[in-house]
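Key idea: predict the complex, not the pieces.
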Amino acid sequence: MQANQIYRVESECVTRYYVWDAVVRVSHWINVIAVGVLIFTGFYISTPFYRPTADEPFGATVMATMKNLHFLFAIIFTLNGLFRAYWFFAGNTYRQWFRFHIWKADFWKEAWWKLKDYITLRYTDYELHTLGHNTLATLTYVILFLAASVQGLTGFAMAGKINPGGFFDTLFGWVIPLFGGEANVRMIHKIIMWGIIGFMIHHISFVIYLEVFREKGMLSSMITGLKTRPFGWEPVEKPWEKKEK
Amino acid sequence: MQKQETFYEAVRRNGISRRDFLRFCFLTTAYLGLESSMVSKVVRALESKPRPPVFWLNFAACTCCTESLVRSSRPLISDVLLTAISLDYMETIQVAAGHQAEEIVWEGMKKNFGNYILAVEGSVPTKDGGVYCTVGGMTAIEYLKKAAQGAKAIISVGSCSSFGCVTTAYPNPTGAKPIYKIITDKPVVNIPGCPPIAEVIVGTIVHLITFDSLPELDSLKRPKVFYGQRIHDKCYRRAFFDAGMFVEKFDDEGARKGWCLYKVGCRGPVTYNACSIVKWNEGTSFPIQSGHPCLGCSEPDYWDKTPLYQHVADVPLPGFATADEIGKGFAIGVAVATGAHLVASIVKKATQKAKKAEVGEEKKQQKEE
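Result:
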């Protein structure tokens, strides 16, 4: 399969584009499961809301199980994230790495234009590459990736201290003094978790909206890989420049 | 110049038997985390090396570190301990006072230039030229800088001198700073704790005497032997934590049964110290054992991590809220904004459709006309 080829299926009233390849889809759903488990177990570790009915500590291992699950899914999430980072470069034509030019004025012009476009409720379709992500979305996902990386660093640093001098401590131990003690590391881990929850609220409600009301196939594209545009739709190059004229 | 007596000679002069001396060596070796083959090295060093004099300086602090030190009962009883490290100057327990005492310091430091160990208790106020703490007519900064010139090593005893404790807490009106921020050209060991455990102070000093070098330090300049592990990971209540059995509030059933104090704000999981191993007062107890959550007193800026009875402190932003409150606020904000946006989008589309339909009907009517 050639990386930069565009696959298109036309039917009577819509055009479908093959956007998300299997790797992206599978890794997305792994992320969904991992983040779900991480948030649930993380909440328990932070505020244990369930107490076993045992009178003695032996036999019950609620917190220990939660911590182990948290750690296990953190590793799954990280490995998945690392592979996904590689796929930024190796994926199909809708990978956005080579468009992530934050040093160029056009990048910010497009992001600003797109933000206004969203706020004024227009949801314009323009260039072909935005079938994957537009610039604003790319920026958001890069920030999300950085947030997840900080979660990984702080989390593994705290987990590593169970065995000082061990594998995780050697790799991530430097994070704790960086934030001035483990109490601050915990706080940051928590705050970023809430940031990710905020992203999820927006993300989920928007894909549902775009699927149901705008018929862009946002939700189903994560299962089928196909995104929808109206029949006879033509891409528009740099709409933010035309507007200025 | 008369030969300085060794640690062993001093101990024997004070009527301690060789058996007790060896016991001290064994215990100290174990505390330092060294293997048993190192015992002979410790014994040899303490027998042959002259005792390096220790000068103990008090600056902006509450003297709790001194109190802790003089209560050291393991490895040896306190008076022997003081002999062991040749404590030449310590304001709290010395006999001399005033000019006499100050003379002893500077004379002693001159005589042992480059060889003495400086133990500093308390942080150093730096604001307004350092006038908020003066000793013998000198400000604390001048005093410290002068005393540090000939020191072999500096031991910051207690949280005040290690990281800044109550003296450097917000808003820090005296501009107090920990020692390692002022003395940068000498080896500094931090022994945080409010107060630190006496055995930890002594252990570090003995390591300095025995091996003529600092113990292995972590990135916050703390001896790894004592500060390498969390209190939580060696806590005897850990089984209750892993089981999920927590004290919900003080004096409930769990508290009486000695369950985990995590939910009433124990900072054991984020605090690096040896409390749960070495314990306090002849190994009698430590805060968690007596039913009180750990306050994390050996962590940097622990006074500013308020409230103390909360295992994750409030976010230090104006308005002080917990991370959860801020996070919930953010998540609700996102939800409201997204919801409003979506509703507006749906309404707009619906009205557009209605308009189109109207326009279509008008056109139809026009055509008909």
